[in-house]
Amino acid sequence: MEEKKPESFIDQLVVPGDVVLDLSTFDNQTIKLGGGLRQDCDNITVTKAGRLRFSKPNKYWVESSQKRYVPCAEDAVLGIVVDSKGDNFLVDIKGPALAFLPVLAFEGGTRRNIPKFEAGTLLYVRVVNANIGMNPELSCTDASGKAAEFGPLKDGYMFETSTGLSRMLLSSPTCPVLEALGKKLSFEIAVGLNGRVWSKCLISIYGHPCWECYNEFRVFELGAAENHGGQTASENSVIQK
Questions:
Q1: What would the pLDDT profile of 5-51 be if each residue is shown by its tens digit?
Q2: Which of 9, 89, 117, 200 has a beta carbon 3.0–4.6 Å from 121's, enabling a disulfide?
Q3: Which residue blocks in the chain are alpha helix, DSSP H?
């Protein structure tokens, strides 16, 4: 049987156990691994079924659609504050365990200006650490320590969907459903890679803020499920206006 070259796995369906990259063939090049991949010596092995994706310059991950989110470092997600313990907020990010957000993990955070979040507060946060067997660690800053778009999301409407749809909404070029809505509505949207979407419209439709956005996303998700993998999504969550 002819051995399949690693490059030929990109944008193709892969299953657990597939060896998609051989690090011995890379010369002094750093490779970033996203969800669904694991390093075994010089081999990069698949740990969940889906499509192998690649984004320049050097990031690989396995894209799949699922209800439960598996935390991965550097993911931007929507979290809901459930409690506070000591110097941390406990946050639900749809993962197998609650994540913790240090009270100082904010731009310019000090003991003098610790934020106060009530239970139920919606936050746009970045996953800093996601080690197996440990609660994920979150931050409201980017890698450079700036707040960027991270922080509490006020008003608006949040709904949950699959992780696959979240990645499609973050696809490049712009997802068709966002382009269509942008021609009819003025709205803000924050998409988390954990399958949560927040939107805020300047007008109300059918008596509910941005109800049409919700309906359009659901219709798009049903259509995408019939042809999964047609869109290539990036790994970075952004707030679009």
A1: 556 788 888 999 999 988 888 777 788 887 788 888 888 999 888 88
A2: 117
A3: 163-169, 176-184, 211-226
**What is the token pair recorded at 168?**
């499609």
| CA distance readout (Å), 28 to 6, 38, 96, 179, 241 | 18, 19, 36, 41, 39
Neighbours of 12 (CB within 10 A): 12
Q: Answer whether 76's CB lies under 8 Å from 237's CB.
A: yes
In the structure, how many helices (H) and strands (E) does the chain have? 3, 19
- State pTM to two decimals: 0.73
Contact assessment for residue 88 and residue 99, using Cβ atoms and an 8 Å cutoff: no
Rg (C-alpha) for the chain, rounded Å, is 19
Report how far residue 157's alpha carbon sits from residue 215's, in angstroms, rounded to the nearest whole number.
Answer: 12
Q: Give per-residue pLDDT as tens, 123-174.
A: 999 999 988 889 999 999 988 888 888 999 988 888 888 888 888 888 777 7
